[in-house]
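Deviation from plan, reported transparently: fe (ii) ion complex.
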Amino acid sequence: MEQSTESDICTDPVIRDQWYPLRALAELPEGATHHTRLLGVPVSCGVTRGRPWARTESAPGDGGTGALPVIDTYGYLWTSLGEPPPGVFEIPEYTEPDRRSMNAGSFIVATSAPRAVENFLDMGHFPYVHTGYLGIEPHTEVNPYDVEIIDGEIWATRCEFFQPMAAATATGGQMSKYTYRVPSPFAVMLYKSSPVDPERRDVIALLLQPMGHEQVVAHNFLCLLDDVNSDAEIKRFQQIIFAQDKPILENQIPRRLPLDPRAETPIRADHTSIVYRRHLRELGVNYGVVPA
Amino acid sequence: MASSRPEGQGWFPVAASDDAVAHHVVEAVLAERELAVWRDDDGWVNVWENRCLHRGVRLSIGHNEGMELVCQYHGWRYASRTAGCTYIPAHPADAPARTMCNRTYPAIERYGLIWTTLADATGSDGPPSSAPLESGSTLPLRAMAVNVPAGRALDSLAGLDLPDPNSPDGTTGGPHRRIDGFTLVAGSGEGVVVFFAQPVAAERCVVRGVVGPAPDEGATLALLRRFNRFLTEWRDEVEAQAEFRPGKRATPPPPTPAIAACSDGTRTRVRVSRRWLTARDVVAVELEAVDGVLPTVQPGAHIDVHLPGGLVRQYSLVNEPGRQDVYLIGVKLEPESRGGSRWIHQSLSVGDVLTIGGPHNNFALRRDAQLTLLIAGGIGITPLLSMARSLHRSGIDFRLHHFARSPEHLAFTDLLAGLGEHHRPHLGLDPAATTVELESILAEPGAGHQVYICGPGPMADAARRVAAEKGWPEESVHFEYFANTRPRDDRHPFTVELARSALTLEVPAGRSILEVVRENGVQLESSCEQGACGTCTVGVIEGVVDHQDVHLSERERAEGRRVVTCVSRAAGDRLVLDL
Ligand code: FES
Ligand SMILES: [Fe+2]
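Because the crystal trials were delayed, the predicted structure below was used instead.
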């Protein structure tokens, strides 16, 4: 793991005040300490006698160590370096009794958190990056969809895409219907018609823990309707998908997301990304981005 | 004397010619600028900024399809030579804007190396001339990356006793001659070795040696090994002396440059490089750029050719994307020609310089079809041949049905032959027999099938009618007419409001929306100006359109959301346009 540098320290209050997951609770055995970084600051966390905790370790420019606020929800230990809101954003499906929730994996990627968010919001790459799973040529067209900001969250609705194998439960190609949601700047979710029960939707989220401007841990949260596959099978499917995204993310120049609308070339299919970049601009985010 | 070329100003080698093999993309770095280097199937070497203009992904992880480079992330395609975007899979029905273009750098192959410059190449003199290498064959050594500055690397080599290319185990002695800050010549006998330095970053370079003349085949491997061993040891030493510390960088990386936009190609000067009779009454004309490269070709695109006396004529390009060293058009002699085709047939000669506009593409090819049916009548073969060549290269299934009077009326037979079984000529059929044939061609409107029609009015009308009868969905039937032969009526005056320019203008009888809009300083592109090509189409926000063009489909006419401004008018007294 790269050393954090002074310049990775976050001065952006919007980003400092968010909750970030540090570790899946299932991967934090009682008494063990997990060392990691958040926004350039070395931090550690653990569960001691059933109580989750997190603290800073000595960091450049931030002397001393100190206890950090913690929340355990959705199966993760969350913390914040700033003054966070009372709770993490709502995922109501989490409490539905017939669902299975799990962390499918926590992947370290050499990219910025907003680049990872944008990749997750993007359907156009399915046939090229997730060939045979989430897309396949010649089904490349991205139909128009709607994007709006509701109570500070971005929602993209009426998204659809042809998928040869949409999930571990899929048995054939289908036109998958998606809803995307960006509940906080560095967290992104999708709701997708379940191959098991078309009336209900699987929830898949990518919860980013920005270690630095250009390095993240991507925690892949799942809340699914699937009584067939084992945890291992479900995780394997997600890991295949993420392993396909990683080399793309690590080959984007620049690694930080450019917020100037002229820096790259969006098309209609990138409607969500256009709104996301504008939203970050309006929030004044300056972490993991190339400011406009 | 050692003159120095400032880094990033002169020409530097970035790869060996042999690195750029067919269907591969090589990554290179020059002065901290990342480059993607690839050779097309015609041998042309491309040196591009290593960044897709869409979402910044390195093009070096993309796919070299021969004449186009395909980005790994969303499959955007870029033409060889211009790096202009030719296709966006997320929107298969749309032609990418002409201004969508990655940044390119000039490339020259010399001494078995590929050279480029980051500076403006106009008026620059190309790679350094190295007299001892000019005269014969050359053998590039394996490139050696070294973590020291370029100048320091050559300073170090200059003082060393190097392997002598003239003898199997002799050495050259020293010191060696510096030609400039980035070039060093060693050896005295018949054979020399020249080292060129490629600055990569402040503290890093690649040393590229070239031996000339190349040794006999039998001695090549031993010589390469000898130099490789020598250079590997030298690298370890010179790096140790420099106390290289990995991870330290002397200077911050240069800011990422803005995405390039290529010229919108409104006017290009071209020279006739070849002309020949390709079929009865059809002259083929090849046009080369007077300077620079020709603008990007998309399948189905046409150009405006400006002829003497202010005449402007539209001709479809036969080129496939990326294969655009010259534009190729086919010109049929029209019996009632007002001078356009007649002048080209009788007066145009090799060496003549013309001005062209475009290319425009209002006949965009979807590349997401399971099966593409191309239906050509006579000279209507030209845009469909461009489409056929590009589908053929990408391995997408298609048939090119080609209606013509006789075998002598088939133009570009050499290119047609390259399509093999996909080309289906239908010769000497009268209108009734043509319809019967069309009925069998269009018998089944399969899912994911697309039809493209280009030909004379009656034939194109017949094909569209048959397609409709057979149940083809309108959005799967694409067409282009040579000319608008429908009767037109420009007597009705009306008002247009331009929503974005906040202008309200009167269009009197006898004038078109296009003319009036332009007179008032609003830019609007056009090409045929008779309602055939669709270049001047704009969006309608309010009002009912009196459609007089042959470009829009029946559905588009009924929807009324677009208007072809050179001929169509308001049905009522007002139109609000998205302009
Ligand atoms: S980044 Fe290259 S096609 Fe999208
Ligand atoms: Fe992906």
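The CA atoms of residues 116 and 345 of chain B lie 41 Å apart. We consider this an acceptable substitute for the interim report.
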